[in-house]
Amino acid sequence: xxxxEPGPHPVLIDPPDLSRWExxxxxxxxxxxLESGRPGPEVLVTALVHGNEYSGAIALDAFxxxxxxxxxxxVTTAFCNMQAYQRxxxxxxxxxxxxxxxxxxxxxxxxxxxxGGCSELRRARELLPFVERCTHLLDLHSMHExxxxxxVTGTLPRNIAFxxxxxxxxxxxxxxxxxxGVRMRDYQGRAGPDAARIALxxxxxxxxxxxxxxxxxxxxxxxxxxxxSLNHAGVPREWLLPDADATxxxxxxxxxxxxxxxxxxxxxxxxxxxxxxxxxxxxxxxxEPVVTPYDECVLVMPSLRQLRPGVTVVRLGAIVGEIGI
Length: 325
Ligand SMILES: [Zn+2]
Hints:
By secondary structure, the chain is of the alpha/beta class. 19% of the residues lie in helices and 25% in strands.
């Protein structure tokens, strides 16, 4: 580790044993289908797209073990990057995000149908039929830094509306995705403006804090109820947090991309901070100040753990108003 580089956060939750979910009737390891036998939504819930983010996998494991069945439609669950997850080492917990490349930057047809066969591309191709067919996608992630949960919606109004109706704690993040590749949530197979598909990504909190499991379970159950898969009465109360108040939505306007390895924030930012005045310096990059471009600027997921030139180290967002229900 370089001097000044942040050390890993403590690992406060144990990685779950998921081996019992490897065999599957779907023919794809770690992917399971729960059929109601009645018409209804085609829901896909994914965890471990990043191999070291297992709070969502703990929630999904508990959901499968509970034998709660959908009342309508079908619920498919997928533990995604198991190759990376199986390398998880609590002494080097940041190292198992992926094996060869980020599984959440591969979701465009040119990558999926093109050459190459790295570990993540092979797994993405296995998962693609389930991503293609779903009407509702919830992708469970967590964050490097300790921060309130985020529901990432993309820019389509139907996803923003669905997110606000969930009444999960935290913030709604409206964004365009990432320049370095397409997320599963942003896959355009059925997710374009004219389609009806709902697709959300949850950042449940810090990767290895117990509260992230609580937020992942809450979002999972609320998503299944809102999609119409489950009746509210069929959900054990311990899975659900109280309804959150109306949630501010933040529209991401600028990525801050590091230009050098000599990048440092000018504060202990963990995300969600609102910087009041335009022109406030939030970081130094090669000695040059990085300043906020407008008043009331929100810092979205600041992190230096992947620092290298060209990497986004924080995104800046504008508050687009209190979202009422
Ligand atoms: Zn992630």
